[in-house]
Amino acid sequence: MGTTTHLMTADELIRLPDxxxxxxxxxxxxxxxxxxxxEHGIVTVNLTILLGQYVKAHNLGVMYAAETGFKLEAPPAExxxxx
Length: 83
Hints:
Elements: H1 10-14, E1 22-26, E2 29-33, H2 38-57, E3 79-82
Antiparallel strand pairs: 1-2, 1-3
């Protein structure tokens, strides 16, 4: 006898309670990651400052914070990173 797996939708992912972890939906399967640590935060903010100044000075577009959610593909092949 086989098992069934419930594939999650982007709407279900968005409605998950905030548990302090990072979540990403890949083709309906929930991937959960631990939050980044202090060193990651320091490196990220310093890189963001430099990269942001370059992008703005050269009118190259926009940048988004890590916690910004995006829906990259239409169902059923959804990939949705959410914090």
